């Protein structure tokens, strides 16, 4: 990562939410090496708690989690930090959830 700020003010906070713990750990390490201040959660409840405690500038959120839908995290994130940039990850994608993710503020749906 370059020294240029990713957002005005240089906020490099990143929330990762995924219930695949091995993937979550690998992604967390990779993003820390790129200069992000990473927090992670493996449930919707954990993601919501992290957002409510301190909304991050960036988020990567799994769509399907054991305790619910990752779109709930995106919705609260954008209500608390409208400029935040979020990406939804899923192996179960469809057009309806992609549209919903976009409407809730996700910048990409993979």
Structure keywords:
110 residues, alpha/beta, five-stranded parallel sheet, two-stranded antiparallel sheet, 4 helices, 39% helix, 25% strand, disordered N terminus
Question: Can you walk me through this structure?
Answer:
- The two termini are 22 Å apart.
- This protein is 39% helix and 25% strand.
- The chain is built from four helices and seven strands; from the N terminus they run βαβαβββαβαβ.
- The chain has a five-stranded parallel beta sheet with strand order 2-1-3-6-7, sandwiched between helices.
- With 110 residues, the protein is an alpha/beta fold.
- It is globular, with a radius of gyration of 13 Å.
- Helix 2 packs parallel to helix 3 (71-80).
Poorly predicted runs: 1-5
Form type: globular
What gyration radius follows from the Cα positions, in whole Å? Answer: 13 Å
Total E-strand runs? 7
Largest beta sheet: strand ordering? 2-1-3-6-7
What percentage of the residues does DSSP assign to strands (E)? 25-35%
Distance between the termini: 22 Å
Given helix and strand content, the structural type is alpha/beta
Mean pLDDT across the residues is 90
The biggest beta sheet is recorded as: 5 strands, parallel
Helix/strand order, N-terminal first = EHEHEEEHEHE
Helix content: 25-40%
- What's the helix count? 4
């Amino acid at each position: 990562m370059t020294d240029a700020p990713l957002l005005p003010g240089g906020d490099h906070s990143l929330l990762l939410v995924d219930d695949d713990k091995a993937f979550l750990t690998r992604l967390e390490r990779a993003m820390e090496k790129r200069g992000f201040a990473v927090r992670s959660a493996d449930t919707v409840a954990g993601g919501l708690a992290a957002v409510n405690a301190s909304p991050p500038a960036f988020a990567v959120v799994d769509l399907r989690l054991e305790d619910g839908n990752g779109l709930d995290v995106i919705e609260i994130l954008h209500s608390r930090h409208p400029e935040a940039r979020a990406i939804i990850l899923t192996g179960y994608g469809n057009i309806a959830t992609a549209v919903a993710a976009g409407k809730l503020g996700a910048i990409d749906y993979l």
